[in-house]
Amino acid sequence: MSVLVDRDTRVVVQGITGHQGTVHAAQMKAFGTQVVAGVTPGKAGSVVEGVPVFDAVRDAVERTGANASCIFVPAPFAKDALLESVDAGIRLSVIVTEHIPFHDMLVMYRYARANGARIVGPNCPGIASPGISKVGIIPNVVFRPGRVGVISRSGTLTYEIVNGIKEHGLGQSTCIGLGGDPVVGTSFVDALPLFEADPETDLMVLVGEIGGTAEEEAAEYIRHHFTKPVVAYIAGRSAPPGKRMGHAGAIIARGRGTAATKVEALEAAGARVARFPYEVPQMVAEIVAARAHG
Amino acid sequence: MVKLAEWRGKALFRKYGIPVPEGQVVRSADEAERAAASGSVPLPCVVKAQVLAGGRGKGGAVRFANSPAEAREATAAILGLDFKGEKVREVLLEGKVAVGRELYLSVTLDRGLRAPVLIASAQGGVEVESVADAAIDRQGVDPFPGITGYETRRVAKVLQLSGNLAQELAALVRDLWALFQGEDAELVEINPLAVVGEHLVALDAKVILEDDAGFRHPEYAEIQDDRTPLEEIAREKDIAFVQLDGNIGVIANGAGLTMATLDVLMELGGKPGVFLDLGGTDDPKKVTEAFLLMAEAHPKAVFLNIFGGVTRCDTVATGLVAAMQQVPAANRFPLVARIRGNNEQEGIAILRAAGVTSVSDLRASAQAVVAAAGVSP
Questions:
Q1: Which residues in chain B come in under a pLDDT of 50?
Q2: How far apart are CA B362 and CA B364, in angstroms?
């Protein structure tokens, strides 16, 4: 078992004829993902990286049985792409596109929810279960099959930490990059129950950052409902208040959502909180070693 | 985020039918006198500095005038003031109104709720931060139906408005919502919303627009904000660039990795001066542009921390070495690079051949750059 994706995940890449879409369709295939279709309006009949391209998601679903989508469509058209995918019956959409206006995302989120569909992202690296399937853009080289679950709000920092886990001789069950935008389709609290239920995950790594209160909410969930060990890291401890640090979400406001409040909440919930990213794999290795001896 | 000066916010209020006092923005004392003399600003009037910082009343940035001559004098006194680091270049003149109660009303995004939230309080006219939680009403708004009738009735009750005032409020809340959606705002705030006789008037306007929606708002481009000139150039090149107080430049890719890099530097006693986030990309051309932009900020040392996902590290290293050669000798600085990911070893070899310190351990490389910043002239 894995989280959100499995061996039957059949991916349609929306925006497959763009640079990113093409590169990552190939990378997903190399990872072992079943990339069954691409969609770019007006490009039906062409083939990209061995993948047939359709004009519409509904065509792709009817002809190939696609059941998940990976969206690379530029921000001005991303809302339409997501609505199309939901209407075509897709129930998991990973949105890689960045700079989608949050007003659009509010509508996308409500629409997906109302129709029983899940969004991961936007502005996210996606989901990967080594040896099973990947929907998104996390580099293939950082993975190794294993039993550590990872949920993160960051992109490259996730790669860094996942890679560190591999370098410590361990591997990952599933890794989900939630995305750093102010409104995301899947939050820590949405993702944690999936890992709690996953028999292949022994312990969790949470990578958060300043801004918003998603980590505090995660801490609350962990305290009451999560039984597996948790190692966390919060980026942005040194960030000056009010300055935007790249992600729209990472703004400190009103004394909430600071690194200090997040660290405190997570520690109170029993998580081990690393001060630096390179401490995360060490802590994970220590927990694994302790369990092996226990 | 694009923060609007009060007069720009009020121009949007007018566009959406939200009542504001009659007034005019001016950029000189002459213009102020003419506006008051011609009747386009009713007398007596309020003269307000157009700055983004709060606390204008107490800070001497708001004055009153009873005649065109006084309007001239008050404007002359305010123009050019340095108000909390902002220079006053524009002044808003508005007819004074007889204020009864002062209320608070806003719409903004609640990230936890993943929905907009309508915030109201009967205690307006003061900083909303200082109002007790119990006196502030918040309700999430679903974007699909938008503001409903029962929601406007609830806000009227919270604000203790009835009869015609409640009717006006219902319309005003709908207009506020229309502005929030139509202009892609992050925040629309009226504080105070004044009760003037049997009517409601927005005495102040705070509007923040969202950068990411700029593609459907070409008018955003002309609005000045608080970026430094280098931050502005970076914005045009789609590189996140923020200037801080220290002397170490940081180039990384991805916000999370950038922040983590700053955290490690600070912990080791370094002082980041500029940080530059290349974003999700590790495109070598962007690395070159970023590097040249960084040189303009004259850091004492630079730390490049890149995780190459799909792009190869050797390509990034080649781009970096090319960029270094374009920096004039006088502006050169010590560089410590840490590049990880695809073709890492090849990339490190290229950097070392060009004389760049290249360390793959994050802590060790951060120590090297802190040391380099310390010993430079």
A1: 376-377
A2: 6
Interchain contact, B310 vs A24, CB within 8 Å: yes
Which residues of A carry out catalysis?
247
Q: Is B289 an active-site residue?
A: no
**Among A286, A203, A31, residue whose Cα is nearest residue A134:** A31
Q: Which helix (H) or strand (E) holds A215?
A: helix A214-225
Same fold, A10-120 and A138-293: yes
pLDDT < 50: residue spans in chain A? 244-254
Q: Tell if the CB–CB gap between B109 and A246 is shorter than 8 Å.
A: no
Q: What pLDDT, on the 0 to 100 scale, is given for residue B226? A: 58
Query: How close B179 gets to chain A, by Cα (Å)?
Result: 12
pLDDT 10s digits, A7-51? 999 999 999 999 999 999 999 999 999 999 999 999 999 999 999
Beta carbons of B111 and A154 less than 8 Å apart: no
Chain A CB contacts of B267 under 8 Å are: 238, 275-276
Fold of A10-120: Rossmann fold (3.40.50)
Q: Which secondary-structure segment (H or E) carries A50? A: none
Question: Taking the domains of chain A in order of start, what are their residue ranges?
Answer: 10-120, 138-293
Q: What is the pLDDT of residues B7-49, one digit of tens each?
A: 999 999 999 999 999 999 999 999 999 999 999 999 999 999 9
**Would you call B279 and A246 a contact, using CB atoms and an 8 Å cutoff?**
yes
CA distance B58 to chain A (A): 22
Q: Please tell me the CATH code under which domain A138-293 is placed.
A: 3.40.50.261
Three-state SS at A175:
strand
Helical (H) or strand (E) element with A270: none
The domains of chain B, with CATH numbers, are: 22-95 (3.30.1490.20), 102-219 (3.30.470.20), 229-375 (3.40.50.261)
Chain B residues inside the 8 Å CB shell of A183: 109, 111, 114
**Contact, B373 vs B300, CB < 8 A?**
yes
**How many other β-carbons are positioned within 10 Å of the β-carbon of residue A15?**
26
Contact call for A102 and B253, based on CB within 8 A: no
**How many residue contacts between A and B have a Cβ separation below 8 Å?**
169
Can you read off the two tokens belonging to residue B201?
């008037």
Residue A35 CB-density burial (10 A; 0-12 exposed, 13-18 middle, 19+ buried)? buried
